[in-house]
Write a structure and sequence with these properties.
Layout: H1 2-8, H2 19-34, H3 38-50, H4 58-75, H5 82-85, H6 89-105, H7 118-130
Length: 136
């Protein structure tokens, strides 16, 4: 998530996405992407347990964790996605391939629990832009 925030903060003419806001906005999508990895799924479920977030299965706990993050984001007036933040769609589409490649090359990406290609990163940013479910 940090590598994504590093590469999108000042790239849009419609306004700077502060690092904290970007991390908060992208985190539920990144959790969903990473939870395809069995070890990451278990770790996110443990985080949900420690936070008192209910669920019967690891998948339910992870979804509830994501929903809790979205609820906090809403409380703090952090948009659900980049489009709601005000990023212009044409500008997003024209730049997404480049900042996706740069995000994959960012030093923080190496510590991500699940590997990601530039193409996958571009799809993940698409989910973060449109607010769509991560299904890959």
């Amino acid at each position: 998530v940090h590598s994504m925030a590093h590469k999108t903060g000042a790239v849009f003419s419609t306004g700077h996405i502060t690092h904290g806001c970007a991390n908060a906005m992208y985190l539920p999508y990144v959790i969903k992407y990473n939870a395809k990895d069995a070890r990451a799924l278990q770790r996110y479920a443990e985080i949900a347990d420690y936070a008192g977030i209910p669920g019967k299965t690891p998948e339910e706990k992870v979804q509830a964790l994501r929903e809790k993050i979205w609820a906090y984001n809403q409380k703090f007036e952090i948009p659900h996605d980049m489009k709601a933040f005000g990023v212009d769609e044409a500008e997003f589409k024209s730049k997404v391939a480049e900042f996706s490649k740069n995000a994959v090359a960012d030093a923080c990406t190496g510590s991500n629990p699940r590997a990601i290609t530039p193409e996958q990163m571009e799809k993940l940013f698409g989910c973060c832009y449109y607010g769509t479910e991560v299904d890959f």
